[in-house]
Amino acid sequence: MSDGLSGYNFAYLDEQTKRMIRRALLKAVAIPGYQVPFAGREMPLPYGWGTGGIQVTAAVIAPGDVLKVIDQGADDTTNAVSIRRFFSRTAGVATTTRTADATLIQTRHRIPERPLTEAQIIVYQVPIPEPLRWMEPRESETKKMHALLEYGVMQVKLYEDIAHLGRITTSYDYPVRVNGHYIMSPSPIPRFDNPKMNQMAALQLFGAGREKRIYAVPPYTRVESLDFDDYPFEIQRWDQHCALCGASDSYLDEMVTDDHGGRLFICSDTDYCGERRAAGHRGDTDLPANPAPRTAP
Amino acid sequence: MIATLADDPANGATNGDIPLLQVRDLGHSYGSRIGCRDITFDLYPSEVLGIVGESGSGKTTLLSCLSGRLPLSQGTIHYDTRTQGLVDLAALSEAQRRLLTRTDWGIVHQSPRDGLRMAVSAGANIGERLMAVGARHYGQIRDTARDWLQRVEIQPDRIDDLPSTFSGGMQQRLQIARNLVTGPRLMFMDEPTGGLDVSVQARLLDLLRGLVDDMNLSVVLVTHDLAVARLLAHRLMVMQGGVVVESGLTDQVLDDPHHPYTQLLVSSVLQV
Ligand SMILES: Nc1ncnc2c1ncn2[C@@H]1O[C@H](COP(=O)(O)OP(=O)(O)OP(=O)(O)O)[C@@H](O)[C@H]1O
Ligand SMILES: [Mg+2]
Q1: Sheet arrangement for strand B48-53
Q2: Of A117, A226, B13, B90, which is most buried by a Cβ count within 10 Å?
Q3: Could you give the CA distance from residue A242 to residue B154 in angstroms, rounded to a whole number?
Q4: Catalytic, out of A4, A33, A50, A53
Q5: Looking at this predicted complex, what is its ipTM?
Q6: What is the pLDDT of residue A6?
C-alpha cells in the first residue's frame, strides 16, 4: 500500500493472516463471549504490549479509520504512543486522542467515559483470556466447563472474597456473563467499566496475543457482572470529585502530590477530563478533599 | 459389639425392587493389562456394597469405571435416574453425565487432596456444589455450609479456614460434607479411612454409618480393611486379579468364606 511504510503490507500483517483473523472475528461475533483460537503471528512488540489487540486492530483497520489508543486511560503512555505510531506508519491512518473523533479504539485497562457509538469499534488487549484458569489449569477441562456452562467455580471465587474481606473485592478483570451464556474475562479494566459493556452500541473485540484467543461482544448485547443476590455487583465509588474537572461520574486515579501525604484524585480518562475542562468545568485543586454526600463501599 | 447396618432388615438387598445401579460384564483394560473384567452386580437403594481385595486386585479401577472417571472397555452400567428411570450411562450426553456426577453422586477419594480444593476455604469447598447448581444467595450458602460442618463434627467457626489447616480426619470429613451437601443418592468411596489413625478411623466410620443411614445413601465402598467392610457394608464383593471371586452378604462372606482366596484373606487379616 502506498500510504503505509514502504516494505510493509498495509497495517503490517499480510493479507492472508488478516483474513484468518477476520474469520476468527466473525466466529467470535457469532458466538458472543466464546474464545476462538487463532494462529497468532509474531509481532514486532513483546507480549504484554498488546500484541493480541494489535493483530485484531490490524485485521479490522481501514485507510479511512481514525485510531485512538488508550493505556491506563491515557493516550500519552509509552505503550499507547508506540502502538499509535505503529499504525500511523504501517497503515497511514489518522490518529486521535479524542474519543468522539475515533472510529477505532484500542485499549488497555479502560473503557472511555464518553459512551461509544455504533460507528465505533473498541479493541481490548487481553493478557489472560480464560476466566476459569485460576481454578482449572487444564485447557481441555476449561473448554468442557464452558461448553457445559459449569460455572460454579466462578461463584466460588466471589464467595471467597466475601468470606475473607466482607465484600467482593475483585476490582479488575471482574468476570461477566455474555448474552446469558458464556462467562468472559473483560480484560483488566476496572469493574467500574463493566456496566459500560452492557448493551454497548459499539462492537467490542478482544485479542489475547500470548494465548492466541479472540472473542467478541456484538453491539447491544447483554453483559452481566457475576454476583450474589445478597451481595449485588457494585462499581467503585469515590468520596472525591476530579480535582481538575470536578467530574463525579468518572473513574478516578489517586495522585501523590508531595511527600507530606498530599493526594489528589483526577480522572483516569484524560480525554474526558480535558473535554470537561475545555467546556469550563473546574475541580477544586486548591481545597482539601471535599466531603461529598456519597459514601464509599 | 457394635450393631452393623447389615443387621437391620430395613436396609440391604431386600429393600426396593428397582436397582439403583445395574452393572453387567464391566471391564477396563490399561492397554494389554487388565484392570478388572466380567463384573456383574446390582446395587439397591440404601445399600452399601463393599469391595475388598488385595492391592492391585482392581478395586480402584472398578470404582473409577462406575463413577464415570474411566471409560469401559466392556460391559454396561445402567442407573436409575430421578427423571428418566433406568438409563444406560453410555447413552447419556457428557453434559447429563457430569450433571449427575455433581448432583446425584458423590465421590470420596482416598486422599482428601484429590477431592478438596485446597486453595479455597472449607465453606467454599462445601458451597461449590450448591453454587454449581445455581445457588446465588451468599448468606444461605454459608448457613448450609455451617450446618454441614457441624454434621461432620467440624467446628462451624472453622468455615473460613483453608483445608490445609485441618487434620487428616477433618479433611476427610470435609470431603464427605462437600459431597453430601447436594443430597446425592449414590456415593463412591475409595478407602475413606485409609491413612488415618485407628482412633480417628473409628470416629469417621461411626459418622459415615450415621450419615448413610440418615440420608438413605447407596454406597460403593472400596477398602482393603475387612473390619471397615464388616462395619459398613451390607454386601461384599471379593476381588482378585481383576475379577470378583466371591460375593454375598457381608457376614456370610466373612464368617463362612467359600473361595480359597477369601478364606486366606479372612484368616490372615480379619481380627474383628
Ligand atoms: N493407570 C494405570 N495404568 C496401567 N495399569 C494400571 C493403572 N492403574 C492400575 N493399573 C493396574 O490395574 C490393576 C488393578 O489396579 P487397581 O489400582 O484397580 O488396584 P486396587 O485394587 O485399587 O489396588 P490398591 O489396593 O493398591 O489401591 C493392577 O494390575 C494395576 O497395576
Ligand atoms: Mg486402589
Answers
A1: B105-108, B186-190, B218-222, B48-53, B235-240, B243-249
A2: A226
A3: 50
A4: A33
A5: 0.84
A6: 62
Would you call B245 helix, strand, or coil by DSSP? strand
- Around ion ligand 2, which residues have CB less than 5 A away? B 60
Distances (CA, A) of A184 to A60, A95, A256: 22, 30, 34
Q: Would you say the CB of residue B35 lies under 6 angstroms from ligand 1?
A: yes
Whether ligand 1 lies within 6 angstroms of the CB of B45 is answered as no
Listed in sequence order, the residues at least 6 apart from A164 whose beta carbon sits closer than 8 Å to its beta carbon are: B121, B160
Phi and psi, residue B243, nearest 5°: -120, 160
Spatial separation of the C-alpha atoms in residues B12 and B47, rounded to whole Å: 5
Grid cell of B231 as nine digits:
462395619
Q: Contact at 8 Å (CB) between B82 and B61? A: no
B231 Cβ contact list (under 8 Å, min separation 6): B2, B4, B205, B209
Put residue B153 in one of left, alpha, beta given phi > 0 → left and psi -120 to 50 → alpha: left
Give buried/exposed letters for B110-128 (b at 16+ CB in 10 A, else e).
bebeebbbeebbbbbbbbb
For all residues of chain B together, what is the average pLDDT? Answer: 90
Residue B118 to residue B189: CA distance in whole angstroms: 19
Instruction: State the average pLDDT over residues B94-118.
Output: 92
The mean per-residue pLDDT over the stretch B153-181 comes to 96
For the stretch A142-200, pLDDT in tens is 999 999 999 999 999 999 999 999 999 999 999 999 999 999 999 999 999 999 999 99
DSSP lists the bridge partners of residue A215 as A206
Tell me the three cell numbers of residue B198: 485407628
Q: Between the CA atoms of B82, B87, B88 and B89, what dihedral angle is there, to the nearest 10 degrees?
A: -20
Residues of chain A with pLDDT under 50: 1-2, 286-297
A149 to chain B nearest CA, in Å? 9
- Nearest ligand to residue B64 Cα: 1
Q: Find the angle CA(B218)-CA(B224)-CA(B226) to the nearest 5 degrees.
A: 80
pLDDT tens sequence across B55-83 = 999 999 999 999 999 999 999 999 999 88
Q: List all residues 6 or more positions away from A259 whose beta carbon is below 8 Å from its beta carbon.
A: none
C-alpha pair distances (Å), A40 with each of A56, A185, B111: 10, 19, 41
> Considering the entire predicted model, what is its pTM?
0.85
CB < 8 Å to B127, chain A: 156, 159
- Record the cell numbers describing residue B172, joined without a space: 476427610
The active-site residue out of A4, A207, A245, A283 is: A245
- Whether A33 sits among the annotated catalytic residues: the reply is yes
Of B220, B225, B222, B192, the C-alpha closest to B42 is: B220
Backbone angles phi, psi at B96, to 5 degrees: -65, -40
- pLDDT confidence of residue B40: 98
Distance separating alpha carbons of residues A63 and A11, to the nearest angstrom: 9
Average pLDDT of the residues in B144-173: 96
pLDDT of residue B196: 84
